[in-house]
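Lab notebook, bench 4. The sequencing result for the construct came back, and we need a structural model before the next group meeting so we can plan mutations. Quick request posted to the team channel:

Model the 3D structure of this chain.
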Amino acid sequence: MVLLKSKPSLMNESIIPQSFNSFLNDFMQDSKSFQESFGESIQFSPKADIIEKANNFEIHLALPGIKKEDVKINVEGDFLTVSGEKQSTTVSENEKMHKREIHFGKFSRSFNVSKINKAKIEAQFENGMLVLNLPKIEAAQPLTINIK
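Done. Here's the predicted structure in token form:
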């Protein structure tokens, strides 16, 4: 049996955004070309998972290398914002940085919490993972009506 690798057609409209996003991600992750082109450091942007449960949402935000004291959580209006700063690693005078792939800098992520009981939001931080528990408001929870 012979395995042939194939690439999807770029004419497919659903592939074009993915290809363009992949190109941008590859370009921006190559720190040398990005910094040479724009003369600035790459900003850190934490990744998030959002999980919906029956009575609440959970947001898991990956913040490796950040202390919980360096993270701020604010709710203003219908938006919850997690912000902070990841410090860069430094090298001494007798050391030379050959490649920098670990991103750093200020970050801010905002989430719509219009259907959340804002007074009951809880946050836990452990091993570089911020977990936000966002209880749904009563009206946002599914209502089951029993037939008599």
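The first strand starts at residue 48 and ends at 52.
Will bring this to the meeting.
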